[in-house]
Write a structure and sequence with these properties.
Immunoglobulin-like; TIM Barrel; eight-stranded parallel β-barrel; 634 residues; elongated; alpha/beta; six-stranded antiparallel sheet; 3 domains; binds calcium ion
């Protein structure tokens, strides 16, 4: 490690130069920031992984720590790396700003990205929402989405970006699968687990292993294993754009899961090679490990912040990505996240931003500066996963046997009321809350119920699963489901247990089993009904705490944990009745005539029944009733 003072680095060398490769018709310009390097050279190669350099050219220092090389001619298609000299030692590394690369991201590639737009790309635009709470997000992993034979996707496209462009694929039972299913469900956004280039998985034989992708290698180019030809740097770029375009065509936005909190390795990363020590936090001379993955990125430093902001703006502009989900966001600092939010909104005012408000260990950053849940109010337009509501719904995540509100722990009633109203101690608005009861981490909802609600038969657990999802979709905030939870996704192990952390488990555990949709199609249809209902009723998507306060009323608690919630505006009133107990429960209704819209098995805008005075709500279920309110004019 080289020795220097960080304050001096930022005050002497921080700059706003454009970094990376700029391509012109008659020249190619390489720029890299390495203020303390003794020399930097550009190595140009014909191949992405083989052979010696065609030639090596020294770069010149052009001020504020930036090294530059200008080549005559347009070098489109050439591979390149940089060799940095520190203390006389030479290290070759990939350009941290590389926007294309060969196999396994070992060498960058000079490419004119504007030439890599699919036909019709200009018409493809961001999905716009009036409020973040209008979103209904489906989280999925590119490979899981279509890998299983029951996906109905051609075997050549399974597991690839391309599967998202297939319309008309069917499950064995003849139901729409993959894209058709997402459209049918009514999701507004697809949130993809990391799609930027990651390490650990060998792109030359992706079948040999599996990974979720939380091992960042190159931040500014797509992962190769999702492309039909990982050797050709163009293919992954084009195919990812085709994915985005396909979803946009269906009116669905694309959210990228981004991992700026750590890199796969510290030693040997592109960032470490460019400037040893600068990009990471250290404590007592050792890398701090707030990510739980061996290192943590020092986002608060001027040029690290710039790097993160540049990277996100690049994805938003070049790939028209509609939103970003920040992995372990509390490792990052507040100022960086606010700068991210400001700059992304210049590109797309409706960008959706949310993250995990926690870390994976102790961070070497003042807690007051961390983009954590506790500091939520100081982050501009950024939402957080509502893990409190998640655990109240289905039971503590890290204790298998723990039961939640839907599975028998009725003393959690007030936590559920808070969740339904988008009230959390740390959140100033429902727009801050991403509500969910299942994500890629931990047991699926269905598996969690299997290990906690052990005294119930499948029928009872299905009711619980439906109720948990209904309470996510009827809650104020931004609902997120893991794709497949609507058809009771499971990750069974051979020993009879269930997988808690399938980040590197085989496809047999991770892939979406579309034949489960055939088996549980009624559950999926019910959830689709709830999504549609949410979209039609603004009262379920209020944008601020003040609005919630003005438009809601909760009846007094009952001994058995039931909930009666009234939501009203000038035109209508919704009555949400929740019965968590194992027998039907009678609710006295407010005066007037009520139309039943949602029962334990049906969702309908036209009345399923009309009732007044009282109503029996079936065991472990929610019911939503509606009546119109006519405002007298004059
Ligand atoms: Ca990779």
């Amino acid at each position: 490690m080289i020795h220097y003072s960080l304050e001096d680095i930022d005050s002497s060398y921080a700059c706003d130069e454009e970094l990376g490769v700029s391509l012109y018709s008659d020249r190619t310009v390489f720029r890299v920031w390495a203020p303390l390097a003794e020399a930097v050279e550009v190595n140009l190669y014909e191949s992405g992984d083989e052979g010696c350099p065609l030639f090596v050219k020294p770069m010149t220092k052009v001020g504020r720590g930036v090294w530059q090389l200008e080549l005559d001619g347009n070098a489109d298609g050439i591979f390149y790396t940089y060799t940095y000299s520190y203390n006389g030692e030479r290290t070759e590394g990939v350009d941290p700003y590389a926007r294309a690369a060969g196999i396994n991201g070992k060498r960058g590639c000079v490419l004119e990205l504007s030439r890599l737009n699919p036909h019709g790309w200009e018409e493809s635009d961001f999905v716009s929402l009036s409020r973040p709470t209008d979103a209904v997000i489906a989280e999925t992993h590119v490979r899981d989405f279509s890998k299983h034979p029951s996906s109905g996707i051609d075997s050549a496209d399974r597991g690839l970006f391309r599967a998202f462009t297939v319309t008309g694929s069917l499950t064995p039972g003849g139901l729409p699968s993959c894209l058709g299913h997402i459209r049918r469900m009514g999701y507004t956004h697809v949130h993809l687990l990391p799609i930027a280039d990651y390490g650990r998985l060998d792109e030359t034989c992706p079948e040999a292993s599996y990974n979720w992708g939380y091992d960042p290698e190159n931040y500014n180019l797509p992962e190769g294993s999702y492309s039909s030809d990982p050797y050709d740097p163009r293919t992954r770029i084009l195919e990812l754009k085709e994915l985005v375009m396909s979803l946009h065509k269906s009116g669905i936005g694309v959210i990228m899961d981004v991992v700026y909190n750590h890199t796969f390795k510290l030693d040997g990363s592109a960032l470490s090679k460019a400037f040893p020590g600068y990009y990471y936090r250290y404590k007592d001379g050792k890398p701090s490990n707030g990510s739980g993955c061996g290192n943590e990125i020092a986002s608060e430093r001027a040029m690290v912040r710039k790097y993160i902001v540049d990277s996100l703006c690049f994805w938003a502009r070049e790939y028209k990505i509609d939103g970003f989900r920040f992995d372990l966001m509390a490792v990052l600092d507040i100022d960086t996240m606010n700068e991210v939010s400001r700059r992304l909104r210049e590109i797309n005012p409706g960008v959706l931003l949310y993250g995990e408000g926690w870390t994976g260990g102790a961070i070497a950053l003042d807690g007051k500066s961390s983009a954590s849940k506790a500091n939520a109010g100081r982050l501009d337009g950024i939402a957080f996963f509502n893990d409190g509501y998640r655990d109240a719904l289905k039971g503590e995540t890290f204790v298998d046997a723990a039961v939640g509100y839907v599975s028998g722990n009725h003393i959690l009633r007030d936590r559920i009321v808070d969740g339904l109203l988008g009230r959390e101690k740390w959140a100033d608005s429902p727009s801050r809350l991403v509500n969910y009861c299942e994500a890629h981490d931990n047991l699926t909802l269905w598996d969690k119920l299997a290990v906690s609600a052990v005294s119930y038969h499948e029928r009872g657990r299905k009711k619980m699963a439906r109720l948990a999802m209904a309470l996510v979709l009827l809650a104020q905030g931004i609902p997120l489901l893991q794709l497949g939870q609507e058809f009771l996704r499971s990750k069974p192990l051979e020993d009879g247990g269930f997988e808690h952390n399938s980040y590197a488990s085989p496809d047999s555990v991770n892939s979406l089993k579309w034949d489960m949709l055939d088996e549980n199609s009624e559950d999926a249809q019910y959830i689709a009904g709830l999504i549609g209902y949410r979209k039609r009723h603004r009262l379920l998507r209020l944008g601020s705490s003040e609005e919630v306060q003005t438009h809601s009323y909760v009846a007094d608690p009952s001994a058995e944990g039931t909930i009666m919630l009234r939501l009203f505006d000038d035109s209508e009133e919704l009555l949400v009745l929740v019965n968590p107990i194992s027998r039907a429960k009678f609710f006295m209704l407010p005066d007037g005539e009520w139309e039943v819209n949602i029962t334990d098995c049906c969702v309908s805008e036209s009345p399923l029944a009309v009732c007044c005075e009282g109503m029996f709500v079936p065991p472990i279920s929610v019911m939503v009733l509606k009546r119109y309110r006519w405002k007298r004019s004059g």
